[in-house]
Design a protein that fits this description.
Peptidoglycan DD-metalloendopeptidase family protein, single chain, coiled coil, Helix Hairpins, about 375 residues, disordered N terminus, 5 helices, metalloendopeptidase activity
Length: about 375
C-alpha cells in the first residue's frame, strides 16, 4: 500500500511539473497575441472596419483568458474540497487514536491485575492439595477457576495486541493524511498564483476591448450580438432537452424557490439595458468565488463560455422550464450532469467582460424569459 500510495503521489507531482510549463507557455502566447492586436489597433484606429476585426480578435482572446481563469478557479475549488475532506479525516483519526490510547491503558491495567492474581495463585501446590486429601470436588473447582483465569489472560493479551495493531495503523494513516494535506496546501498556493496571473492577463485584454466599444453604437451592436448568441443557445438547449418523469418543472414552485446565491438585486428583470434592449434576467451582486446553487432539481444541458455572458450554465427542470446562470468564474458541473436543489454548480465571477463580480440569472419557460422574482422567495 505504501509503495502504491507514493507511486500515485509521484505521478501527481510529475503531472503538476509537466502542466505548469504548458500553462505558462499558453499565457505567454496570449500575452504576445494581445501585444500584436494593441499595435494594430494603434495603427488602424481610424478605420472602423479594421477596429471591428480587432474587436472580434479581442473577444476571442477574452474567451481564452476567462476559460483559463475558470480552469484555475475550478482547480482551487477542487483542492479546497479535498483539503476539507483530509482535515475531516485527520480529525476522525485523531479521535480514534485517543479512543484506542484510552482502551490500551485500560487493557494494560486489567492485564496487570490478572497477572498479579495469577502470581498469588501460583503459590498453591496442587500435589499438597492431593496429599492433604482435599475433596475431589474442591480440587475440580479450583482447577476450573485457574483455567478460567488463564483463558481470561490469553483473551486480554489478544485484545491488547489488536488494540496496539490498530493504534499503529491509525498513527500511520495520520502521518499519510498530514503529508497529503501539506501537498494540497502547496498545490493550492501554486493554483492561486496561476489564477492571479490569468486575471491580470484578462484585465489587459478587457482594457483593450473596452477601447473598441467606446462608441455607443458599437456597444449596442455588441449587446444585440450577445442577445442573438443567447437566443441560439436557448433554442438549441430546448431541442436537446429530453423530458424525464422525475422533472416536474417550476410551475408548482412559484414564490417558493431560493435564489441561486446571496446578494443584492442590482438589475431587475425587464429594466432597460440599452436602446430597445431589455434585461431578460436579473443581476445579483455577490463576492467573486461565492457558490452558486441550483434552484431546483434538473439536468445540465449547457455549460460553456458564451459571448457577453462568460461562463454560462443552463439547467433543464422539465415541463419547458430552464434556469440560466451567467458571468461565472468557474462551472462546477458539466453538460449531462444531474443536479439537485441546493447543489453547488458554479462560482460567482465577472466573466463575459464584466468589471464587477456578480451573477446573471434567468428563468425561462418554453424559451421565453420570465421574471425570476415570481419564482424565488423575496
Amino acid at each position: 500500500m505504501s509503495t502504491l500510495r507514493w507511486s500515485k503521489a509521484g505521478i501527481l507531482a510529475g503531472f503538476l511539473v509537466l502542466s505548469l510549463p504548458l500553462q505558462a507557455a499558453d499565457l505567454e502566447r496570449r500575452q504576445s497575441e494581445l501585444k500584436a492586436i494593441q499595435a494594430q489597433i494603434s495603427q488602424q484606429q481610424s478605420a472602423l472596419k479594421s477596429t471591428g476585426k480587432q474587436r472580434e480578435r479581442l473577444i476571442a482572446l477574452l474567451k481564452q483568458d476567462e476559460k483559463a481563469i475558470a480552469d484555475a478557479a475550478g482547480a482551487i475549488n477542487r483542492t479546497q474540497g479535498e483539503s476539507a475532506k483530509v482535515s475531516t479525516k485527520l480529525q476522525q483519526l485523531k479521535q480514534r487514536s485517543e479512543q484506542l490510547e484510552r482502551l490500551k491503558q485500560s487493557q494494560q491495567q486489567s492485564l496487570s491485575k490478572q497477572l498479579a492474581s495469577a502470581y498469588l495463585a501460583g503459590s498453591h501446590d496442587y500435589s499438597k492439595m492431593l496429599l492433604n486429601q482435599q475433596s475431589p470436588a474442591t480440587i475440580e473447582r479450583m482447577l476450573a477457576y485457574y483455567q478460567y483465569l488463564n483463558k481470561a489472560r490469553i483473551k486480554a493479551i489478544d485484545q491488547l495486541k489488536l488494540t496496539l495493531d490498530e493504534l499503529q495503523q491509525v498513527r500511520s494513516q495520520q502521518l499519510d493524511e498530514q503529508s497529503r494535506l501539506e501537498r494540497l496546501i502547496v498545490e493550492q498556493k501554486d493554483q492561486a498564483k496561476r489564477l492571479g496571473a490569468e486575471q491580470s492577463q484578462r484585465q489587459l485584454t478587457l482594457n483593450e476591448l473596452q477601447k473598441t466599444l467606446s462608441e455607443r453604437g458599437a456597444e449596442l451592436e455588441q449587446l444585440q450580438i450577445e442577445e442573438a448568441s443567447l437566443k441560439r443557445v436557448v433554442e438549441e438547449a430546448l431541442r436537446a432537452a429530453k423530458e424525464s418523469p422525475s422533472m416536474k418543472g417550476l410551475a408548482s414552485q412559484r414564490g417558493k424557490l431560493g435564489w441561486p446565491t446571496k446578494g443584492a438585486l442590482n438589475v431587475s428583470y425587464g429594466s432597460t439595458r440599452s436602446g430597445q434592449i431589455k434585461w431578460k434576467g436579473v443581476m445579483l451582486a455577490a463576492p467573486e468565488g461565492q457558490n452558486v446553487f441550483a434552484i431546483a432539481p434538473g439536468k445540465v444541458i449547457f455549460a460553456d463560455w458564451l459571448r457577453g455572458f462568460g461562463m454560462v450554465m443552463v439547467v433543464d427542470h422539465g415541463e419547458g422550464y430552464m434556469s440560466l446562470y451567467g458571468h461565472a468564474q468557474a462551472l462546477l458541473k458539466e453538460a449531462g450532469d444531474t443536479v439537485q436543489t441546493g447543489d453547488a454548480i458554479a462560482l460567482v465571477g465577472r466573466s463575459g467582460g464584466q468589471t464587477e463580480p456578480g451573477l446573471y440569472f434567468e428563468i425561462r419557460h418554453k424559451g421565453q424569459a420570465v421574471d425570476p422574482a415570481g419564482y424565488c422567495r423575496r
